[in-house]
Design brief:
Aspartate Aminotransferase, domain 2, 386 residues, Aspartate Aminotransferase, domain 1, four-stranded mixed beta sheet, alpha/beta, seven-stranded mixed beta sheet, 2 domains, globular
Length: 386
């Protein structure tokens, strides 16, 4: 994570004090340099949804690494083709084209360029509290002042409306709008779930204005929310779908998925040197096979419901709300959550925040049920004690 310069001058921007040094992982466990074991409740912001050392991912990577690691997109490749076929087979039939890159922010950048080119318009409407990445275009769609201000002026043409506010969205979208860009669940913004009315209205409003609709499912996609893709819960299909994080079991990858109609209107060019490389695609195929075969979406739904039932009884004078979908859960406290995170770390659980007052849980979807129950008990105890 980029921040102020490191005093030791090694990793740019990373603080050198107070961080646990993780040296290996096994399933939902992470181990530090002293051999202490932690239960991973953050999955590296969702990228580690299949846990560490997944044997099927490891075998796919090893086999591909000994055959062909990198190949530019100017050449056909059966590993890439197989991955694309598997991904598209899991999506609604309207999706037909995929641009592969290396991260969520790259997937967003591609989506922004596709939307502007395909519509001939420039305005992008996004949501307050939304997070879409840290490159200049993705950051322009993001609304966190502390992230934006050091790099202003950002890319022009972006406006932000309150999340779940249908009248505000309707007022913002007009004949100059290229894209409406939304997260079905705002992960970094505090784990706020979109209302069915909001996403359905977004579909209708964008169509009426001749704009495109994109869902950023970088954090919510691939079974995290109890469905393979969060948008399935609402029955609202976007024109552009943005994926990354857990798409290849933790190997860097990003995907910008579009309809044939949108792809046919695209003018100009966009390219990624490492996007769609055989190593990432081999891992992606193994990851998708594992998620589907092990029914991890249904498992996330069940374990998430258990968590919300367990945490829903936390004292109201300590917790404002527990919200989320599947195994993406936010616990909004009435105080800052840093002390809770530190206390949990001391007990062997690594969770992450979503803003100053929200404790966020994104465990690997493969977490053992006893570990999940123990984590929920520890969270409830620390909040009650705090």
């Amino acid at each position: 994570m980029i921040a102020a310069p490191s005093p030791k001058g090694h990793e740019f921007g990373a603080p050198d004090t107070g961080r646990v040094e993780i040296v290996r992982g096994e399933g939902a466990y992470l181990f530090d340099a002293k051999g202490r074991r932690y239960v991973d409740l953050g999955a590296t912001h969702g990228a580690g949804s299949l846990g560490s050392g997944n044997p099927e991912i490891a075998r796919a990577i090893a086999a591909q690494a000994s055959t062909l690691v990198h190949l530019g997109s100017g050449y056909a490749n059966p590993v890439r083709s197989a991955f694309l076929e598997k991904l598209l087979a899991l999506l609604p039939a309207s999706f037909a084209r995929v641009f592969l890159s290396n991260s969520g922010t790259e997937a967003v950048e591609a989506g922004l360029k596709i939307a502007r080119s395909a519509t001939g318009r420039t305005k992008i409407v996004a949501a307050l509290r939304g997070f879409h990445g840290r490159t200049m275009g993705a950051l322009s769609a993001t609304w966190r002042r502390e992230l934006r201000e050091p790099f202003e002026p950002l890319v022009p043409g972006f406006v932000h409306v309150p999340f779940n506010d249908v009248p505000a969205l309707e007022a913002a979208v007009d004949e100059s709008t290229a894209l409406v860009l939304l997260e079905p669940v705002q992960g970094e913004g505090g784990v706020h779930v979109a209302s069915p009315e909001f996403l359905r209205a977004a579909r209708a409003i964008s169509q009426r204005a001749g704009a495109l609709l994109a869902f950023d499912e970088v954090q919510t996609g691939i079974a995290r929310t109890g469905r393979l893709f969060a948008f399935e819960r609402w029955g609202v299909t976007p024109d552009i779908l943005l994926l990354a994080k857990s798409l290849a079991g933790g190997v860097p990858i990003g995907a910008t998925v579009t309809t044939e109609e949108v792809a046919g209107r695209f003018r100009g060019s966009h390219h990624s040197t490492f996007g769609g490389n055989p190593l990432a695609c081999a891992a992606g195929s193994a990851a998708l096979d594992f998620v589907v075969r092990e029914r991890l979406a249904a498992r996330a739904d069940r374990l998430g419901e258990r968590a919300r039932n367990r945490l829903g009884s936390l004292p109201e004078h300590k917790v404002r709300e527990v919200r989320g979908l599947g195994l993406l859960i936010g616990i909004e406290a009435r105080t800052k959550v840093v002390p809770y995170l530190a206390a949990l770390q001391g007990r062997g659980f690594l969770a992450i925040p979503a803003g100053a007052t929200v404790l966020r849980l994104l465990p690997p979807l493969t977490i053992a049920e006893p570990d999940w129950d123990a984590a929920l008990d520890a969270i409830a105890e620390e909040i009650a004690r705090g």
